[in-house]
């Protein structure tokens, strides 16, 4: 076999569990099958077995995203409003079985393994130990976590917070898994305490979308709804891998493709899910090993090249308009938009050669994409992390909105913006006020409701939180869900920063690296998960609510028995902290009755209804099957901008994006860090990435064949990845196997979070401060690791 040839092999058999932790040397093979299909069903079987709780899980799965069931803890893709809706999703199954596992992390486990030892374990092995069951406190003398009573743990948090010199020394992080009610209580707690230090995972995710959409359209959320996907004539998908990360979206794309809609993909990698999909819910297709094409056209820009691509499309349209072709919607432009001429001038002044060099696409390709766009009378643009995790993400999202406006693709059926969100409730958490830069309106509403002054100074976002902890010891960090320490960039710097804290405390379901990087004191506070029944003291089961990517708010109630009887709900933990924190402050019970909130989440929803716009009659509206829609003004052509119109931006293209900056630096490449098919963010379910032909390992780097040869390496060789160290921090990760892949020259890809040590903290988006995790400068060194 030649060095670039890959072994061709069939899909792996269903019998074996996700591959063992020791199997670290990945096998590489060519994957010829469509996304979904039998491969997905086999994988489901494996994960059900591995969880050791198959009966329970099968039942859970049929209650996913049902009106009387629970919201899938996977992605934020919307649920259909009609028809039967058990939607099969391989990765939704993984998310549920991972939570519903029969394995437990007991006090004996913590007695056996010191924190130093656990730090040598990888992410998979840590979470695979099972569910956390009782609160644990770190003992620095023994280097072990030890059991602690709930009261003692909550007292410790309140005492440490009270002991801080200023409330701004408290940092309150939220991951998008947290439901609306938890998020509301958490932000209220932080603000009553006196700080807007409410960083969240959005800061690392779709922040650029919110900033750009707010500036352009006056609202930060996407405007396209699920029914718009049924009417769209064209769907443009930028920088997103739905086959893995939003599998239910594939069903929607497939239906669109079947009825003849044009699906145009822009992705730096050839992603299987964007090419072909076999729907496991279509028995005939499964029987005949059939599948359906997804993308009608697939363009592969270089990393960070999308702003140039979209500008090229606009340039082609302006040229055709100038030649008298009816390709722009002048009526829409005149009635609803502002600053068109400045944009037009900017676009016309940008040379094709500049656009080609930055995008990595040819002028012909950009003109072809423009032609596909010009033929459609209703277009939706979707995007995700391939767009939002660059330095110039905000101007890029604005450029996408510019393009949509040129043909009036806002406020009409089958059209609009669709930033496809990540975590199942990341959008809802923001709606609930989890934001380090709250609006004046929110703070005024909170003040009116609680008759207490709210902090007006902006708080820290995720990157700024690390900088603050790095520069100033003695903070208290509380994490509501998530794995902050592992998810944020510059792992070595971040871990030192976290260790500077006087207390780190995480409300979690599973053991992760954040628990192991301890402050002077550290707590693990285990909670019940979304698939589990949340009973109050009186035994009544509680409802929580979430908001999906299309702004639908709906209820969710777990059906499984909690993993352990000593677990508490997130809300019980948070209200417990609040009671202790504000015991001697002048917050009278009649203003906030924390115990009543805990006993009945309807009480929290009454608070939300009084403070957050759009939530009137929350308790009754959320009990209607499928919930309610938070109206998006853009859908009604209302724009909350300074001009009252949809505003064009005329940002210059970046002088040189990362791949251009590195072109003159011998041996350097631009690295994107992304998800495998077997992970949920920092949660690693297994070591396979089926659609990309990887089995049994995550330490791989995908490279263009010519780059491999040019740099003097061979496919299959082990290399170390070295990042920038001009600030004196050594950034490297060792032992990655080279995989030849269909990606443009100069562009490399590897999995997150293993590669987070390579991203300097300061390498972040302009205006969004999102770590630029899709454009990292790296070079390769032959590894000492043996193949
Ligand atoms: N199963 C599963 N589901 C998930 C998650 C998970 O980890 N696992 N995570 C959830 C979360 S929080 C999020 S935010 C979403 C993430 O969903 P995605 O955004 O799909 O996640 P990534 O794996 O980061 O994939 C980025 C995609 O963009 C492409 N890309 C990267 N850079 C560029 C670029 O410069 N230009 C273009 N055109 N393409 C580029 C990559 O090749 C890749 O296909 O998924 C959510 N759903
Ligand atoms: N290099 C690089 N870095 C990235 C990204 C990237 O593409 N590249 N993506 C970024 C993105 S988009 C995101 S959203 C962040 C993700 O950042 P986070 O949201 O902070 O991380 P997760 O990995 O989703 O968190 C997993 C942990 O959440 C806990 N958990 C799970 N379910 C629950 C629950 O119901 N309740 C509670 N209380 N805890 C629960 C478990 O203990 C589990 O270990 O990472 C970011 N980091
Ligand atoms: Mo995300």
UniProtKB/TrEMBL annotation:
Sequence ranges assigned to domain Molybdopterin dinucleotide-binding in this UniProt record: 669-774
Pfam families with a match to the protein in the record: Molybdopterin, Molydop_binding
Region Disordered, annotated ranges: 1-25
Record keywords, A-Z: 4Fe-4S, Iron, Iron-sulfur, Metal-binding, Molybdenum, Oxidoreductase
Segments passing through the bilayer: none
Cofactor: [4Fe-4S] cluster; Mo-bis(molybdopterin guanine dinucleotide)
SUPFAM superfamilies listed in its UniProt record: ADC-like, Formate dehydrogenase/DMSO reductase, domains 1-3
Molybdopterin oxidoreductase domain ranges (all copies): 131-499
Domain of life: Bacteria
Biased composition (Basic and acidic residues): 1-18
CDD domains: MopB_CT_ydeP (cd02787), MopB_ydeP (cd02767)
PANTHER family per the UniProt record, alphabetical: PROTEIN YDEP, RESPIRATORY NITRATE REDUCTASE
NCBIfam families linked: Fdhalpha-like
Family from the record: Belongs to the prokaryotic molybdopterin-containing oxidoreductase family.
Record-given protein name: FdhF/YdeP family oxidoreductase
């Amino acid at each position: 076999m030649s060095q670039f040839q890959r072994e061709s092999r069939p899909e792996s058999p269903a019998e074996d569990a996700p591959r063992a932790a020791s199997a670290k040397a990945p096998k590489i093979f060519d994957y010829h099958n469509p996304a979904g299909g039998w491969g997905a069903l086999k994988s489901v079987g494996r994960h059900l077995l591995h969880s050791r709780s198959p009966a329970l899980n099968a039942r859970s799965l049929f209650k996913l995203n049902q009106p009387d069931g629970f919201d899938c803890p996977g992605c934020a893709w919307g649920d259909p409003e009609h028809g039967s809706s058990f939607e099969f999703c391989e990765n939704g199954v993984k998310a549920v079985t991972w939570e519903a596992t029969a394995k437990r992390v007991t006090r004996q486990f913590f007695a056996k393994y010191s924190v130093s030892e656990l730090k040598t374990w990888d992410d998979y092995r840590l979470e695979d130990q099972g569910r956390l069951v009782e609160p644990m406190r770190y003992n620095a003398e023994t280097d072990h976590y030890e059991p602690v009573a709930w009261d003692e743990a909550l007292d410790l948090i309140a005492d440490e917070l009270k002991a801080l010199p200023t409330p701004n020394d408290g940092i309150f992080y939220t991951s998008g898994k947290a439901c609306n009610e938890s998020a509301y209580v958490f932000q209220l707690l932080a603000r009553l305490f006196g700080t807007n230090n409410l960083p969240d995972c959005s800061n690392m995710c779709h922040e650029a979308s919110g900033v750009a959409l707010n500036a352009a359209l006056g609202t930060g959320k996407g405007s396209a709804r699920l029914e718009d996907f049924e009417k769209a004539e064209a769907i443009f998908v930028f920088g997103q891998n739905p086959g893995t990360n939003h599998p239910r979206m594939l069903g929607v794309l497939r239906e669109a493709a079947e009825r003849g809609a044009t699906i145009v993909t822009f992705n730096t990698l050839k992603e299987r899910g964007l090419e072909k999909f076999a729907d496991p819910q279509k028995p005939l297709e499964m029987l005949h090993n059939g599948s359906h094409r997804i993308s009608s056209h697939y363009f592969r820009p270089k990393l960070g090249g999308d702003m140039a691509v979209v500008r090229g499309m606009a340039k082609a349209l302006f040229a055709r308009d100038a030649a008298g072709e009816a390709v722009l919607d002048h009526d829409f432009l005149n009635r609803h938009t502002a600053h068109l001429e400045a944009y037009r001038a900017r676009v016309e002044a940008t040379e094709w050669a500049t656009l080609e060099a930055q995008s990595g696409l040819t002028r012909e390709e950009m003109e072809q994409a423009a032609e596909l766009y010009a033929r459609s009378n209703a277009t939706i643009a979707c995007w995700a992390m391939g767009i939002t995790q660059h330095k110039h993400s905000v101007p890029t999202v604005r450029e996408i909105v510019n393009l949509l406006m040129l043909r009036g693709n806002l406020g009409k059926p089958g059209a609009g913006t669709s930033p496809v969100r990540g975590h199942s409730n990341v959008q809802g958490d923001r709606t609930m006020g989890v934001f380090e830069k709250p609006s004046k309106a929110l703070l005024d509403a909170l003040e009116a409701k609680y008759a207490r002054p709210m902090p007006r100074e902006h708080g820290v976002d995720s990157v700024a939180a690390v900088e603050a902890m790095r520069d100033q010891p003695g903070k208290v960090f509380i994490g509501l869900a998530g794995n902050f320490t592992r998810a944020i960039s510059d792992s070595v710097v971040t871990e030192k920063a976290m260790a500077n804290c006087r207390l780190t405390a995480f409300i979690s379901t599973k053991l992760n690296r954040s628990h192991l990087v301890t402050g002077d004191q550290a707590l693990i506070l285990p909670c019940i998960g979304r698939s589990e029944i949340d009973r109050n003291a009186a035994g009544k089961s509680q409802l929580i609510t979430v908001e999906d990517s299309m702004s639908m708010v709906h209820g969710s109630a777990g059906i499984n028995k909690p993993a352990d009887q000593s677990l508490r709900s997130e809300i019980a933990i948070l209200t417990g902290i609040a009671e202790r924190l504000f015991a001697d402050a002048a917050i009278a019970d009649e203003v906030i009755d924390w115990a009543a909130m805990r006993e009945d989440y309807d009480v929290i929803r009454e608070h939300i209804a009084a403070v957050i716009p759009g939530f009137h009659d929350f308790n009754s509206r959320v009990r209607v099957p499928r919930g309610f829609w938070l109206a998006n003004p853009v859908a009604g052509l209302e724009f909350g901008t300074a001009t009252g119109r949809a505003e064009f931006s005329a940002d210059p293209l970046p002088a040189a994006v990362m791949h251009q900056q590195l072109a003159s630096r011998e041996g350097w490449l631009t690295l994107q860090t992304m998800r495998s098919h077997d992970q949920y963010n920092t949660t690693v379910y297994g070591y396979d990435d089926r659609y990309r032909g990887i089995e049994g390992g995550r330490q791989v780097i995908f490279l263009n064949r010519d780059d491999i040869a040019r740099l003097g390496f061979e496919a299959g060789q082990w290399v170390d990845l070295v990042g920038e160290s001009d600030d004196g921090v050594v950034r490297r990760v060792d032992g990655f196997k080279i995989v030849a892949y269909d990606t443009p020259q100069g562009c490399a890809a590897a999995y997150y979070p293993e590669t987070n040590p390579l991203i300097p903290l300061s390498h972040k988006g302009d205006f969004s401060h999102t770590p630029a995790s899709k454009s990292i400068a790296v070079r390769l060194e032959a590894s000492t690791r043996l193949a």
